[in-house]
């Protein structure tokens, strides 16, 4: 059997072929650590799942998942928590990648939120994120009975992320208690839990944003084209450049979409994710741009700037 | 491809090469509260351009709001990312931060100083190559310095930077620095830390942080960053043969059977002879499959999949090793144990032990001594409390492949997991295998349990009565034995009081002694069941963990747990032996139900309600359960 995901890669001039003991490169080490973690999840849990959010970190995770279990098929399915407010391209990309890799994909949208018509514009970022992401995630985990959920969070993203374990214990209510985390020594991960409890696992905790892009470049991993600069219709609102992806973004008085050369550094719900002006239309240019970047990748995330919805608070409530 | 794109591609390829070949150093910062760890890391991040504008703006805003440094930036706020940390102004858990210079990449674990969070400090130390121990120049060596240095040495970090911080507050006085360094060298020698580099610093002002400071002309050594960029901590286990703890057996189809894991030491290539442990079966490597596909050699640190020439039964937890240089296999060890549990460690109580990819049941048979982590003094101990370190003998229920921690972290470091709460309660480092492990073998006997049971025409059982003192255990057990005896069965009662007159007369009523009391009686009951008897054990046995330990000595179905369920008020009112009155008067310490807890069973085979039913009716229930 052969899966497209697992096709042998073309020779890579920068990857050493005859490996001596000291020859492991930085990305090789990160890759090996992540594969080790994914295998521990598969072996240590009854019913694990990988959260697939279609962005660059998810793309790297999916690639690593294939490698960890090659030539076999990964024994871990994917779950996409769809808020209904993703960019159209993300949904198309998601379905294409699931088909190409042959990994089972579950999609869940919070039906209560849909019934109440919850959205980022009508209800604001905080309510939308809570109902359509946090609550939806908990619903899906409960519904499928997943006992471990793998996510693409990195410690360099945010201060409370920097404090999180690789195997992060959650109680029956999916709550994280930052003051009482399990000690995590060496690469010995405690996977034992009681029924109803779960663990969030972060295999790329020790990767930086730059590592992610260089790995995507080295491994030729497909990512949504929204990361690449192109002429897109945008409006400038509250200091952020919002892309008018479809008719769901009501324009305020005086706002007129104009075409600008923009791209995204992170992909969330489209009215909550600001674009940046950029000419980086190739991976090489994205990396070059990153090297001189003066702002962090989360700067364009509207939700991060709401102090009442800090990452720590959201995570305690069950957010990834 | 356009010329512009081609040159961008070449530039990125060159950059990627540089990025990939740059070395990585993992280090921790530790030391006392308020000694300036966070300021130090904050400045390293800031100076190495590891902070972005929006992060700096947020930090600036936070600093003004919290106002701890006046109008200056308070770098601690950059690292103490938890709300509780900001409220209290202390570090609770490890923060992992990343930065890089032209020469190296760094992962720094900022560790908490408070004794209460020693386990989090150990978490950070377990993966570090180098430790930066901060000392406040005004305060000198503190208890915290000693505690953290001890844990640094316990976890095998051999390179320590003694960072004497806040030199600006002692007028950059060389004598102050020299005195602290002399004191620390003595400590390092006691602890066996080989390499100590002392640097006078002011993290706040930047002295000797990135380059040598004009304020300390008497100091001729390197700056902190210069040290971190150049130190070579050296490879561990370089001399060891190949070791692969198996994580996962990959069987996508009939034709492929691969053994996946991360190489813990050594190297492997196709054709190598290997041995699988603990079974000792041998074979040869056919393919080494790495992240990029088949490879000529697999080296330490790589996650690989092996295929072998023979169909060996190898599963998760086994270790594949070089046939000529295999690690040892044993089930008894001497090890250092850093206790991290809220409840104390009790010798005899079983815990899960995870080492490599193997999880087995283990108990501490003896605490040889505990170490006062503040003074390194060796003290006698019956148990270990939170944050204490003990030198212990451990007994495992399975033999495992292992190595001394000093030779190999991956096969010498373990964690203990509480079997009830599933919490990670200890970190351990194996010192050596106990010789007796190799010398005691099971004596094979021809007449087995089944044969003995047949000759008695009964199914041997261990009937375990548990309940408060005065609940009626012995009364009911006695009635059960009488009935069974009348029916021609072979029975025996092991009664708590009676056993304490003989076999267990050396034991008292502390938690430690209660655990040992149950361990011994459970072993005796097992021998009796092996002899074909029906054993009625009547013990308060207050802790779930020990009843579970007893249960696990028996085959499925052999162990029948009977909860004699009498509420405390009722037992106390009956007070058959007058013990409750004495306990209430303070004349019997550690009395179950009064000042020592009773943990009711969660899945007893039988629950007997002594309030509603007569002892005779309850005895009949037990007999019905045994004979059905």
UniProtKB/TrEMBL annotation, chain A:
Belongs to the PAPS reductase family. CysD subfamily. Its EC number is 2.7.7.4. One of its GO terms (biological process) is sulfate assimilation. Heterodimer composed of CysD, the smaller subunit, and CysN. Keywords: ATP-binding, Nucleotide-binding, Nucleotidyltransferase, Transferase. With CysN forms the ATP sulfurylase (ATPS) that catalyzes the adenylation of sulfate producing adenosine 5'-phosphosulfate (APS) and diphosphate, the first enzymatic step in sulfur assimilation pathway. APS synthesis involves the formation of a high-energy phosphoric-sulfuric acid anhydride bond driven by GTP hydrolysis by CysN coupled to ATP hydrolysis by CysD. Pfam families: PAPS_reduct. It comes from Agrilutibacter terrestris. Gene3D superfamilies: HUPs. Residues 47-274 form the Phosphoadenosine phosphosulphate reductase domain. This is Sulfate adenylyltransferase subunit 2. It catalyses: sulfate + ATP + H(+) = adenosine 5'-phosphosulfate + diphosphate. GO terms for molecular function: ATP binding; sulfate adenylyltransferase (ATP) activity. Pathway: Sulfur metabolism; hydrogen sulfide biosynthesis; sulfite from sulfate: step 1/3. The keyword tRNA-binding does not apply. Residues 1-20, 299-320 are annotated as: Disordered.
UniProtKB/TrEMBL annotation, chain B:
It comes from the Bacteria. ATP binds at residues 467-474. InterPro entries: APS, APS_kinase_dom, CysN_GTP-bd, CysN_II, CysN_NoDQ_III, G_TR_CS, GTP-eEF1A_C, P-loop_NTPase. It catalyses: sulfate + ATP + H(+) = adenosine 5'-phosphosulfate + diphosphate; adenosine 5'-phosphosulfate + ATP = 3'-phosphoadenylyl sulfate + ADP + H(+). GO terms for biological process: hydrogen sulfide biosynthetic process; sulfate assimilation. Heterodimer composed of CysD, the smaller subunit, and CysN. HAMAP family: Adenylyl_sulf_kinase, Sulf_adenylyltr_sub1. The active site is at residue 541. In the C-terminal section; belongs to the APS kinase family. This is Multifunctional fusion protein. APS kinase catalyzes the synthesis of activated sulfate. The gene is cysN. GTP binds at residues 31-38, 110-114, 165-168. The keyword Kinase applies. Keywords: ATP-binding, GTP-binding, Kinase, Multifunctional enzyme, Nucleotide-binding, Nucleotidyltransferase, Phosphoprotein, Transferase.
């Amino acid at each position: 059997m052969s899966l497209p995901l697992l096709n042998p890669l073309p020779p890579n001039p920068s990857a050493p072929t005859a490996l001596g003991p000291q020859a492991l490169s930085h990305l090789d080490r990160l890759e090996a650590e992540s594969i080790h973690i994914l295998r521990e999840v598969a072996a240590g849990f009854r019913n694990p799942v990988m959260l697939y959010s279609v962005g660059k970190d998810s793309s790297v995770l999916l690639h690593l998942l294939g490698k960890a279990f090659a030539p076999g098929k990964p024994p871990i399915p994917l779950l996409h928590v769809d808020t209904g407010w993703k960019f159209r391209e993300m949904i198309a990309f998601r379905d294409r990648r699931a088909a190409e890799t042959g990994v089972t994909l579950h999609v869940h949208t919070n039906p209560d939120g849909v019934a109440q018509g919850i959205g980022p514009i009508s209800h604001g970022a905080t309510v939308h994120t809570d109902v359509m992401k946090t609550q939806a995630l908990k619903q899906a985990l409960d519904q499928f009975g997943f006992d471990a959920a793998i996510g693409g969070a990195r410690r360099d993203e945010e201060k409370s992320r920097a404090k999180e374990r690789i195997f992060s214990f959650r109680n029956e209510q999916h709550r994280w208690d930052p003051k009482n985390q399990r000690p995590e020594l060496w690469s010995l991960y405690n996977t034992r839990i009681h029924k109803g409890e779960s663990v969030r696992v972060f295999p790329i905790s020790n990767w930086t944003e730059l590592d992610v892009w260089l790995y995507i470049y080295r491994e030729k991993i497909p990512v949504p084209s929204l990361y690449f600069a192109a002429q897109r219709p945008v409006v400038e609102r509250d200091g952020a450049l919002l892309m008018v992806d479809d008719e769901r973004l009501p324009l305020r008085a005086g706002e007129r979409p104009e075409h600008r050369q923009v791209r995204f550094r992170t992909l969330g719900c489209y009215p909550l994710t600001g674009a940046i002006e950029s000419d980086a239309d190739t991976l090489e240019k994205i990396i070059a741009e990153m090297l001189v970047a003066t702002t962090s990748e989360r700067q364009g995330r509207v939700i991060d700037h709401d102090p009442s919805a800090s990452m720590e608070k959201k995570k305690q409530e069950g957010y990834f | 491809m356009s010329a512009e794109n081609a040159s961008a591609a070449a530039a990125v390829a060159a950059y990627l090469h540089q990025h990939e070949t740059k070395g990585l150093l993992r280090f921790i910062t530790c030391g006392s509260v308020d000694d300036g760890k966070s300021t130090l890391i904050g400045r390293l991040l800031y100076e190495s351009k590891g902070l972005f504008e929006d992060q700096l703006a947020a930090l600036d805003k936070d600093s003004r709001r919290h106002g701890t440094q006046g109008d200056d930036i308070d770098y601690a706020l950059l690292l103490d990312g938890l709300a509780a940390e900001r409220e209290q102004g202390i570090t609770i858990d490890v923060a992992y931060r990343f930065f890089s210079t032209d020469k190296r990449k760094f992962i720094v674990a900022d560790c908490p100083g408070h004794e209460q969070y020693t386990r989090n400090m150990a978490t950070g130390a377990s993966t570090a190559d180098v430790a930066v121990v901060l000392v406040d120049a005004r305060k000198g060596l503190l208890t915290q310095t000693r505690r953290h240095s001890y844990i640094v040495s316990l976890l095998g970090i051999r390179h320590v930077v003694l960072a004497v911080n806040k030199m600006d507050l002692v007028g950059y006085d060389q004598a102050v620095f020299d005195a602290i360094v002399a004191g620390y060298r003595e400590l390092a020698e006691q602890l066996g830390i080989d390499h100590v580099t002392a640097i006078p610093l002011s993290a706040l002002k930047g002295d000797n942080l990135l380059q040598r400071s004009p304020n300390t002309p008497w100091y001729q050594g390197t700056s902190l960053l210069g040290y971190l960029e150049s130190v070579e901590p050296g490879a561990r286990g370089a001399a060891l043969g190949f070791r692969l703890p198996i994580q996962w057996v990959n069987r996508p189809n009939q034709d492929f059977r691969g053994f996946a894991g991360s190489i813990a030491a050594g190297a492997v290539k196709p054709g190598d002879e290997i041995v699988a442990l603990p079974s000792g079966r041998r074979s040869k490597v056919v393919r080494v499959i790495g992240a990029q596909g088949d490879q000529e050699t697999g080296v330490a640190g790589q996650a690989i999949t092996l295929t072998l020439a023979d169909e060996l039964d190898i599963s998760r937890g086994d270790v594949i090793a070089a046939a000529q240089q295999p690690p040892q296999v044993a089930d008894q060890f001497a090890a250092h144990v850093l206790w991290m549990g809220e409840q104390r460690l009790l010798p005899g109580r079983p815990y899960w032990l995870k080492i490599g990819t193997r999880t087995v049941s283990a108990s501490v048979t003896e605490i040889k001594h505990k170490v006062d982590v503040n003074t390194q003094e060796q003290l006698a101990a019956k148990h270990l409390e939170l944050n204490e370190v003990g030198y212990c003998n451990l007994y495992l229920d399975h033999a495992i492949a292992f190595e001394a921690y000093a030779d190999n972290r991956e096969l010498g470091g373990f964690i203990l997991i509480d079997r009830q709460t599933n919490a990670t309660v200890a970190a351990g480092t194996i010192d050596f295998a106990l010789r007796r492990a190799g010398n005691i073998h099971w004596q094979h006997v021809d007449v087995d349990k089944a044969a003995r049971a047949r000759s008695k025409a009964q199914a041997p059982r261990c009937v375990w009565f548990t309940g408060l003192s005065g609940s009626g255990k012995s009364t009911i057990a006695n009635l059960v034995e009488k009935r069974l005896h009348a029916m021609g069965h072979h029975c025996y009662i092991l009664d708590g009081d009676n056993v304490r007159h003989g076999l267990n007369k050396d034991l008292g009523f502390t938690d430690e002694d209660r655990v040992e009391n149950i361990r011994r009686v459970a072993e005796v009951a097992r021998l009796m069941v092996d002899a074909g008897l029906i054993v009625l054990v009547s013990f308060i046995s207050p802790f779930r963990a020990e009843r579970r330990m007893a249960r696990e000595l028996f085959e499925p179905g052999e162990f029948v747990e009977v909860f004699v369920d009498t509420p405390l008020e009722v037992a106390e009112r009956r007070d058959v032996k007058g013990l409750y009155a004495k306990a209430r008067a303070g004349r019997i310490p550690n009395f179950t139900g009064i000042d020592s807890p009773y943990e009711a069973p969660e899945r007893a085979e039988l629950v007997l309600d002594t309030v509603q039913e007569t002892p005779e009716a309850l005895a009949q229930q037990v007999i019905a359960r045994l004979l059905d």
